[in-house]
Design goal:
single chain, 291 residues, alpha+beta, Fumarylacetoacetate hydrolase, domain 2, five-stranded mixed beta sheet, binds magnesium ion
């Protein structure tokens, strides 16, 4: 099942779709967070209202517009990305230890597909994209071994871990440069885990203005999803609704020679096989035409 948060005639709803074309509004759940806390068996009540996902009355929002907690991120979790990040700034991005690197991405509001990524050009001169497979937890996990981790997964979505590289290096710590307003586009939907055969191995790609920049497969993760859940849950409860962004492969702007950072008007598409496309346009500050 594919789970959406969508706006229909101006009202936000949680909806479920089998085919990604028509979605059934699930009125029993006010928000996706409620659905994740209560759980959902994939059934659609009879007489549920259906809407076309490409209808002009429908706007697809982030599946979780207000995550209950900040997004947990993996840093340098594809080996090819480790090399390019270190070549950009050895001190800020070096990974000389085998354990996973975790950091937090503050998110007050996650925008969805077709929404804008703000440039923050007054403080950011090096805006970058990172396509990532994100795991959505559906059942509280505490001291869960890798072999049992699958039970605690609800499904998967796409996160663009938008990054201000100059702020990551300037502040020596990634938190601020990863957490500006509008830096957590997510979507277009959460695909439930039963749509995949076990832990998914999926092609992951990014296009900027149609040019393929990132291309890999989630089987290349250094620390895999079950191990991530085991390591984190050894000391912290991963409650239902937790979002974990599993890291990005090579091909980000800072890894190019010279780097080609995002600019006003660029279209960024993050695509993961079996989930869909997260499409966002970069936008600089506009003059206020009302003045
Ligand atoms: Mg990242």
């Amino acid at each position: 099942m594919r789970y959406y948060t969508l706006s229909h005639k101006g009202t936000a709803h949680v909806a479920a779709s089998k085919d990604g074309k028509r979605a059934y509004i699930l009125r029993a759940y006010k928000t996706m967070n409620v659905l994740l806390l209560k759980g959902h068996d994939g059934s659609v009540p009879p007489l549920s209202e259906a809407v076309g996902l490409d209808s002009p009355d429908v706007r697809i929002l982030s599946p979780i517009p207000h995550p209950r907690q900040d997004v947990i991120c993996l840093g340098i979790n594809y080996s090819d990305h480790a090399k390019e990040a270190e070549s950009f700034d050895k001190e800020a991005f070096t990974k000389d230890r085998p354990e996973p690197i975790f950091f937090s991405k503050r998110v007050d509001y996650s925008q969805g597909t077709q929404d804008v990524i703000p440039m923050h050009e007054d403080i950011c001169d090096s805006l970058d994209y990172e396509a990532e497979l994100a795991v959505v937890i559906g059942k509280d996990a505490y001291k869960v071994k890798a072999e049992e981790a699958f039970d605690h997964i609800f499904g998967y979505t796409i996160v663009n871990d938008v990054s201000a590289r100059n702020l990551q290096t300037k502040h020596k710590q990634w938190y601020f440069g990863k957490s500006l307003d509008g830096f957590t586009p997510m979507g277009p939907c959460i695909v439930s885990k039963d749509e995949f055969d076990g832990i998914p191995e999926l092609d992951i790609k990014t296009y900027v203005n149609g040019e393929l920049r990132q291309s890999s497969n989630t089987r290349n993760l250094i620390t895999g999803i079950p191990e991530i859940i085991e390591v984190l849950s050894a000391g912290m409860t991963l409650s239902a609704g937790t979002v974990i962004a599993t890291g990005t492969p090579s091909g980000v702007a800072m890894g190019m020679d010279p780097p080609v950072f995002l600019k006003d008007g660029d279209e960024v598409i993050c695509e993961i096989e079996g989930i869909g496309r997260l499409v966002n346009r970069v936008e600089g500050r506009r003059e206020d035409s009302s003045k």
